[in-house]
Amino acid sequence: MNGLNVLAEAGELARAGQAFALATVVWRQGPSSSKQGSRAIITADGEVRGWIGGACAEPAVVRAAREAIADGGTRLLLLGTPDQFRGAVPEGMTVVPISCQSEGALEVYIEPVLPVPHLVIVGGSPMAHTLAALARALDWSAELVSGSEFTPGHAGGRSMVVVATQGHGDEEVMERAIAARPAYLGLVASHRRGEAVLGYLADRGAPRDQLEKVHVPAGLDLGKTSHEEVAVAILAELVQLRASGALAGGVAPGAERKPAQAVDPVCGMTVMADASGRPLAHDGVTYYFCSAGCRRTFEERLETVQ
Fold first, then answer.
1. HSE on the CB side for 265, CA within 13 Å?
2. Is 118-250 CATH 3.40.50.720?
3. Distances from the Cα of 1 to the Cαs of 7, 25, 69, in angstroms?
4. In the chain, where are the structural domains located?
5. Which pLDDT belongs to residue 78?
6. Is the whole-model pTM more than 0.90?
């Protein structure tokens, strides 16, 4: 996959709402299998699409890319042997020593591309329109859907749904919203009205775990306010929950856990502790390696000891 194809696929993934990182080689020192401008997509589960380096560079880039997807921050990596840089490393770069036969070096920029928040507002009141406008001002994807048109297909596991139908079919809309199992579900209603709606849904057999997640009244409690301030209160609650990580459904699949790592016992390089790390079990301990060469060296050492 060449650079243009990588960018085309990146656009498709972004439009599909999938999280990934884009890695670009911005500098190289030969000998190296990479070229300046080489690009690759790294998905949240560590799949590489494109080319950014060989067996030594790729694990380090994949590890940093998955971490970038998890925390949303960019990375600038300098990959090579420790003595190549001699402390002259610009601020902001992360040096990743790699101990391979090649004496080349790479500088790789990693940029996470995360799905924008998806907000579905059910209703047509002035508050609903204000909330949609505020969310779009934050570059969120905000949909305004009438209660009669809303279906579970409008939302998904990473969506946030706010039901503001003002008593017009609240129960039916909430039942359909619960079926979508969104990351957030809020009902714009009083405590008393909310209890009545949730009670009705419980009698209808709605899953208890989903009912317990419903926010009612939706938004931060600001007391008696205007419809504009209600919209602000709801958006503030959503921002707060997303920032705290409470909306688990909004986390990219595969990014919720920091990938397991191990240290190559031969060269000291940090590698992925999975099948790509060429695992070798010995005396109840599993070792991982950056390359077949390091694993072979380790096996030879074991044979010498035995």
1. 17
2. yes
3. 10, 15, 22
4. 10-113, 118-250, 261-305
5. 85
6. no
